[in-house]
Amino acid sequence: xxxxxxxxxxxxxxxxxxxxxxxxxxxxxxxxxxxxxxxxxxxxxxxxxxxxxxxxxxxxxxxxxxxxxxxxxxxxxxxxxxxxxxxxxxxxxxxxxxxxxxxxxxxxxxxxxxxxxxxxxxxxxxxxxxxxxxxxxxxxxxxxxxxxxxxxxxxxxxxxxxxxxxxxxxxxxxxxxxxxxxxxxxxxxxxxxxxxxxxxxxxxxxxxxxxxxxxxxxxxxxxxxxxxxxxxxxxxxxxxxxxxxxxxxxxxxxxxxxxxxxxxxxxxxxxxxxxxxxx
Length: 279
Known about the structure:
The chain is an alpha/beta fold. It has 12 helices and 11 strands. The chain has 2 domains: 7-101, ATPase, nucleotide binding domain (Nucleotidyltransferase, domain 5); 102-274, Exopolyphosphatase. Domain 2 (Nucleotidyltransferase, domain 5, 2-Layer Sandwich), CATH 3.30.420.150. It is globular and about 55 Å long.
């Protein structure tokens, strides 16, 4: 029988951005065909988000992909009008979205990355509103992300960041996740990879598995901090507003490296949207 939808798709509706993945299954693994990212801060302009979702549905169907899974994360977990948003989103996408827990988000990101790099790794998914850690056996989600930090500390954190981080880490036990081969996923990590390699356009093959040292993170923080908001947002990987939150995200990644007791990380372009299609 003719298959109307030869491909599959997933949508990750996050706190800071919404991502469409159109893919195919090949040798049991999810292979990306098209990825589209739109920055839209959840809760600030829902009309814009709904328009993005409508365009994603049209694009997926035009590419012969059935939307198999839609996940909503930290911003939706704390939203007051969940039922209304779920109804509107289902009407637009023709599929009921799921509000996933932080632990499930961690598990799905790990599932996607470990299919490529094996089980003996740690994944760290730095999003806009939360960060997820997973070893495949242990999972942790904390409500800290690039967007939330920028709301509280501005585009460029001052001395208050160090004091805040010192106090915050007293309440978070990262010992089960230390000294492991660590893969960072999420928009901040991908943008970091593009900046370090000076890549002008997103290219998953050029970024995937890239090693970045903590000295690289420090260098990029200094470089971006010396630019105006307009120049930051004009840089590759920082368009459409990511430049407003990138420095806070990099401060957070730098702090995590210190607490995880690692001097280098690896970047993966995989993550939740891939994990949603792994089953």
